[in-house]
């Protein structure tokens, strides 16, 4: 390790005297005809420390660039000089290498790295072996004839959440380096959406691919940067990945809807932004029902609860609310905890197929602060009501023998086969104990 | 006779449901509708006992004028509950062919009570009615009552009837009621019915009940249904309850055998609902393997929702 200390003095460098040497050096830069290169020289007691020239040499590998430099200086005006040393390194004033020029006033240093900046300083050695302090430092950046590789652009990518993206093709090339020797890397600006590990590069040679696998369920935007490098230079391109939420047309699974029994006016059901809007005609009463049912399957025990936001009824009666039903026939067994359009909580059930309905009224419901809930535990069905969705009051429990695989959902009837009841529900939740005791099936 | 038929019910179940509704194994099980007799044109009601038609008229009048249908129905139930057994046929006679909602409800309630007490007599009366709503209602009530008490006898009665829309409707209700507790028998009965959306729905319902008890057998049966549309419906119905017992099998079925569409989406989400809470890693791995499309999207959203509900964040 060679370290030399220079004393800086306003652009000039005063060197300590070595023997009879009192040195004053300074730099300037100039063009030298013919070489077409940067030239610098220093004066050391009249010396001129000259960077005589550089030439391009083939570096290791196939990249082409400058790898040597020749430095020259004027002879020392002092006497007894027998040798010159040139110190150099990649960091200013920190010299890791030295070459001896003998009595010559120039030296060619080889094995340098193309494109790198080196720092040089010279010393003179007299016949007694005494070495001067360093000359002023000069630096030089080796030129490079290597050109950066080229990577093709990639258009922005927009996909829906949950959708895998097919491998995206791109090309890489380089004037000096074979495409197979180019290194491609990738990075993402949004690790939550697209971790770097979810970017898979493929292909070979000129034709490469990138496959993106956004994190399941995540939406958002990420900037994907692809970088291609030859041994010394790199080039990048980037593109946007946008993962959108999906709006599924129709009812989101597993919801279904159907008219139960024979209704005069077909009903409908929509689910959007947490609003469950159900239109239905008919009645849920007697030995055969006809109404609109928005439902999903339930295996074994479970429950449904919901908030009834509004009822706009064109009929003369009817009921709306949460229902657990054995099948989709008009005479099927069921348990319903609902609210009548007149504003009364009502617990209804049919405990025998095709038989009559039993009904229990239970106070007033003031919309939209009306919540109902039906719970199945074996063959015990319980109806609850609430004004806040937190504190529930048991209205009644009934024993109804039902099969294992049944239906759970929202029932809407208008009390008339010729008019619709449009009711809106929110906070709909189905609990299936086959899924988990306490896990809500979010809808 | 009833015992012999019941024993047959527990033999092989219907395995060859095709597009025509035939089920060869169902026939081996004794569930064949057989030759169909022409319907009797008789419209006379058998009179089992006298009834005061004035009383029935007054009741119907009261029920139909009551603006509170539930209250009216409670009144009706009270009336029927107060009848003596010997009065049931007389009330039906007094009702005649009236078609108001109150008359219909009263008829159904009385026939049901009669069928639960004397199914043969009620069946004979019901099958003698002329075709129409009253006939269908009466047949259905007898069928459901008999399915719950003596299904073999009930089926023998149904298969002796000349098949028309009313009888088909009653047979369908019979199949549903049997499926509640004996899904393979219900399946065999439904497979004997003529093809219709209602029949197919009943098949899917019975198969789903079977899957709840024996998922593997139900899945195996569903795979062999010949009619493509019906097979999809049945597979979808089976896959969901099967997921509670055999989520891997149900998931494989849904992915491999259900065609892309609403049925597959519902099945996939339902399977995820039943699988993910217990085995989230396995369920997530399956979802990742699922082909791109709406079903995968829905499944991913369900996974995310379940994870959030479990406190795992999104």
What is the overall silhouette of chain B?
A: elongated
> Which percent range describes the beta-strand content of chain B?
under 5%
The count of helical stretches of chain A stands at 0
| Poorly predicted runs of 5 or more residues of chain A | 1-48, 51-64, 436-443
Architecture overview:
The complex is a heterodimer of chains A (443) and B (314). Chain A is 0% helix and 56% strand. With 443 residues, chain A is mainly β. In chain A, strands 24, 25, 27, 32, 33, 34, 36 and 37 form an 8-stranded antiparallel beta sheet that branches. In chain A, a hairpin with a 7-residue loop joins β30 (344-350) and β31. Chain A is rod-shaped. The two termini of chain A are 71 Å apart. The model of chain A is unreliable at 1-48, 51-64 and 436-443 (pLDDT under 50). With 314 residues, chain B is mainly α. In chain B, 70% of the residues lie in helices and 0% in strands. Chain B has helices spanning 2-9, 24-28, 53-65, 69-81, 88-95, 101-117, 119-127, 133-149, 151-160, 165-181, 183-192, 197-213, 215-223, 228-245, 247-256, 262-275, 280-289, 294-309. Chain B is elongated and about 70 Å long. Mean pLDDT of chain B is 81; it is low at 1-50. Classes of the chains: A mainly beta (443), B mainly alpha (314). Chains A and B meet through β26 and β37 of A and α4, α6, α8, α10 and α12 of B.
Write the layout of secondary structure elements.
The complex is a heterodimer of chains A (443) and B (314).
Chain A: E1 2-3, E2 8-9, E3 12-18, E4 21-25, E5 27-32, E6 37-42, E7 49-58, E8 64-73, E9 81-89, E10 94-95, E11 97-102, E12 106-109, E13 117-126, E14 138-141, E15 150-151, E16 157-160, E17 168-173, E18 183-188, E19 199-204, E20 207-212, E21 220-229, E22 234-244, E23 256-260, E24 268-272, E25 275-282, E26 291-299, E27 302-313, E28 319-325, E29 334-339, E30 344-350, E31 358-364, E32 370-377, E33 380-386, E34 393-399, E35 405-413, E36 416-432, E37 440-441
Parallel strand pairs in A: 16-22
Antiparallel strand pairs in A: 1-10, 2-3, 3-4, 5-6, 7-8, 8-12, 9-11, 9-13, 13-14, 15-17, 17-20, 18-21, 19-20, 21-22, 23-26, 24-25, 25-36, 26-35, 27-32, 27-36, 28-29, 28-35, 29-30, 30-31, 32-33, 33-34, 36-37
Chain B: H1 2-9, H2 24-28, H3 53-65, H4 69-81, H5 88-95, H6 101-117, H7 119-127, H8 133-149, H9 151-160, H10 165-181, H11 183-192, H12 197-213, H13 215-223, H14 228-245, H15 247-256, H16 262-275, H17 280-289, H18 294-309
